[in-house]
């Protein structure tokens, strides 16, 4: 168990495209454990491997719906609906922005045992899946905000 250093916006590694995982190794098992520790310690609902400096297609998500998801080589195979809402990121501390995302996604991935899984996400889980998968292609939510970023301490007025 270890807390890893979270890379912040401006670090080039957040803009790289990550490589697929071809086999589970002890090193990757440790990485995944550390990603959960790091995410929970920072009170995040998701974390992607490049955020801890590893260019592999791995994300962990826990939106407090009773289940935590490890998604390896994830792909969104279906999406529907639209939701507009505020989003933040552990790599952009103290900031939020409004992003339009699908309201429902179907995601295929591999789990920690390299077994194929399908995760259906709605609402916040759909948003988290989209956000974390973007990280694997070097995309940050700030690239997609409707009206830029604002401080969590001074929310914009409606
Ligand atoms: Ni993020």
Assembly state: single chain
Approximate strand percentage: 25-35%
Helix fraction bin: 10-25%
CATH topology: Peptide Deformylase
CATH superfamily: Peptide deformylase
Total number of β-strand segments? 8
Strand order of the largest sheet: 1-2-3-6-7
Span between N and C termini?
Answer: 42 Å
Key structural traits:
158 residues, alpha+beta, Peptide Deformylase, three-stranded antiparallel β-sheet, 2 helices, 18% helix, binds nickel (II) ion
Question: Would you write up a description of this structure?
Answer:
This protein is of the alpha+beta class. The protein contains two helices and eight strands; from the N terminus they run H-E-E-E-E-E-E-E-H-E. It has helices spanning 26-41, 124-136; strands spanning 46-48, 58-61, 69-80, 83-87, 95-101, 104-110, 116-122, 149-151. A five-stranded antiparallel β-sheet has the order 1-2-3-6-7, sandwiched between helices. Strands 4-5-8 form a three-stranded antiparallel β-sheet. The model has no long low-confidence stretch (mean pLDDT 96). The structure holds nickel (II) ion. Residues 89-91, 131, 135 line the site of nickel (II) ion.
Structural topology:
Blueprint: H1 26-41, E1 46-48, E2 58-61, E3 69-80, E4 83-87, E5 95-101, E6 104-110, E7 116-122, H2 124-136, E8 149-151
Antiparallel strand pairs: 1-2, 2-3, 3-6, 4-5, 5-8, 6-7
The structure holds nickel (II) ion.
Nickel (II) ion binds next to α2.
């Amino acid at each position: 168990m270890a807390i890893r250093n979270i890379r912040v916006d401006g670090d080039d590694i957040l803009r790289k495209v990550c490589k697929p995982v071809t086999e589970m190794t002890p090193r990757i098992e440790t990485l995944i454990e550390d990603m959960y520790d790091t995410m929970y310690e920072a009170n995040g609902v998701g974390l992607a491997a490049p955020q801890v400096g590893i260019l592999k297609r791995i994300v962990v998500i826990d939106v407090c719906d009773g289940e935590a998801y490890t998604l390896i080589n994830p792909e969104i195979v279906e999406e529907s609906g639209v939701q507009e809402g505020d989003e933040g990121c552990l790599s952009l501390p103290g900031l939020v922005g409004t992003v339009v995302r699908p309201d429902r996604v179907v995601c295929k991935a591999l789990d920690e045992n390299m077994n194929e899984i399908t995760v259906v996400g709605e609402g916040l889980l759909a948003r988290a899946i989209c956000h974390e998968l973007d990280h694997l292609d070097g995309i940050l939510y700030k690239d997609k905000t409707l009206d830029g970023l604002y401080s969590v301490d001074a929310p914009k007025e409606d």
